[in-house]
Amino acid sequence: MSYQKYGIRPELVGRVKMKMKHPAAKERVKALLQGLTKADLQDKAKVKRLIRSVAAVLNEPLSETQQEQMAAFVLGQKIDPNNTFHLLKLWSMFR
After folding, report:
1. Dihedral sign, Cα of residue 81, residue 82, residue 83, residue 87
2. pLDDT digits 0-9 by tens, 41-62
3. Which of 27, 38, 45, 54 has an alpha carbon 20 to 30 Å from 70's alpha carbon atom?
4. With the C-alpha atoms ordered 21, 23, 29, 31, is the resulting torsion angle positive or negative?
């Protein structure tokens, strides 16, 4: 799993996946991420802000190091939210 190469712990990913199964939390996160562009996901400051916002919605405390690791992961993936292939790749990584 490539997220582990960035130092992101599987336990954290598991907790977030469980929390995202709750419809209310899922809808709040989707609302936060609505309208993102590829440029937004390549801007480190915006990515860190999004990570903090999503962590707050999911009530998941993150250290500064964890935020940096997640931001590095997102930037490293070069995600284009309008590209179906990119979204499928992410989905398969975390299913």
Report:
1. positive
2. 999 999 999 999 999 999 999 9
3. 27
4. positive
